[in-house]
Structure to design on (48 residues):
C-alpha cells in the first residue's frame, strides 16, 4: 500500500491526509471485511 511505502521512506503522513489528497473516502481505507459467523450462515440457509 502507498502509505506503507511512505513509512519506509520516513515520511509520516496520516491516512486521513492521504485520502484527502487522493480524493478518496476514508471508510474503505479503514474497513476490514470479516467473515460471516457460522450461526448467521446457517440462519440464512434456513431462511432461503
Amino acid at each position: 500500500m502507498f502509505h506503507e511505502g511512505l513509512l519506509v521512506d520516513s515520511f509520516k503522513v496520516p491516512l486521513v491526509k492521504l485520502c484527502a489528497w487522493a480524493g478518496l473516502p476514508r471508510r474503505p481505507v479503514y474497513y476490514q471485511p470479516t467473515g460471516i459467523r457460522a450461526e448467521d450462515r446457517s440462519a440464512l440457509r434456513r431462511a432461503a
Observations:
- The mean pLDDT is 76.
- DSSP finds four helices and no strands in the chain.
